[in-house]
Amino acid sequence: VERGTRVGIASDGRRNVQTFAPAASFRALFRENDWNTYRISARGSQVEIRINGTVVAALDDRQEGEADRAGLLALQLHSGAGPVKVQFRNLVLAPVGADGGGSVTAP
């Protein structure tokens, strides 16, 4: 899922991509030389990504037999021209209850 898109994946794997904003429009969200907040909420088939409080991407994956609902959590960097410094702090994982509450947050 790219920044600025909502992606829906149907049970048969067909994809529907809707662009709600140009990816470049999110550059202003990032605070250089300061902490940025990423919030990743995953509830059932739906995943939403926020940067500093703004939704930047969303996914609704209903493809049958393809979803991994458990596994490892990894943090990665897609870097451009270096050097790049990446730091993480205040990582919080909250379980999703039967009512759909809770989220996964990575500030």
Termini separation: 20 Å
Q: How would the global form be characterised?
A: globular
Number of strands: 7
- What is the element string, with H for helices and E for strands? EEEEEEE
Helix and strand content put the structural class at mainly beta
Count of helical regions: 0
Radius of gyration: 15 Å
Q: Tell me what portion of residues adopts beta-strand conformation.
A: 25-35%
Give the strand line-up of the largest sheet: 2-1-5-4-3-7-6
Biggest sheet details: 7 strands, mixed
Low-confidence parts? 102-107
- What number is the mean pLDDT? 84
- Helix content bin: under 10%
Task: Describe the model.
The protein is mostly beta strands and about 110 residues long. The protein has no helices and 7 strands. The protein has a 7-stranded mixed sheet, with no helix packed on it. Strand 4 and strand 5 form a beta hairpin. The chain starts with a strand and ends with a strand.
What is the strand and helix layout of this fold?
Elements: E1 5-9, E2 15-19, E3 38-43, E4 46-51, E5 54-61, E6 92-93, E7 104-106
Parallel strand pairs: 1-5
Antiparallel strand pairs: 1-2, 3-4, 3-7, 4-5, 6-7
Question: What is the gist of this entry?
Answer:
With 107 residues, this protein is an all-beta fold. The chain contains no helices and seven strands.
Provide the descriptors you would attach to this structure in a database record.
107 residues; mainly beta; globular
